[in-house]
Amino acid sequence: MTENNYQEDLKLKEKKIKPKLPSLYKVIVLNDDFTPMEFVVNAIQKVFNKSSEEATRIMLQIHTEGISICGTYPLEIAETKMNQVLNLAKESQHPLQCIIEKI
Q: What's the distance, CA 62 to chain centroid?
C-alpha cells in the first residue's frame, strides 16, 4: 500500500466514524390527589437540583396540568432520577408517580 493510498483510506475512515449522541429521555412527574404540594417541591429540589422558585413552578404545572417534565437526560440518568423520586415518595408513604419517556 502506497503512502498516498494509506492517507486516502484514513480520510475515508475519519469521515465515516461519527460519535452517536445518546438518546434523551424526559423525566415526568404525575399529579395525584394525595401527595402534599410541599413534598413534591422538596423532591424536585432534591432530585433535580432546582431552585425553590423553579420547583414550585414545576409543582404547580403538575397540579394544574396533570404532569410536568422535570428534566431531560440520557437513559441511565433518567432512570436514576425517576427511581430517586419513587423511593422518596415510598419512604414517605406518598403515592407520587414518576415516569420516563423517550424524546
A: 16
Q: What is the Cα–Cα distance from 79 to 47, expressed in whole angstroms?
A: 12
Question: For 99, what's the count of Cα atoms within 13 Å in the CB-facing half-sphere?
Answer: 8
- Counting every residue written for the chain, the total comes to 103
Grid cell for residue 4: 498516498
Residues of the chain with pLDDT under 50: none
- CATH fold, domain 21-102, is Ribosomal Protein L30; Chain: A, (3.30.1390)
Q: How many CB atoms lie within 10 A of CB 37?
A: 12
What is the pTM for the complete model shown? 0.81
Instruction: State the amino acid at position 93 in one-letter form.
Output: Q
φ/ψ of residue 91, rounded to 5? -60, -35
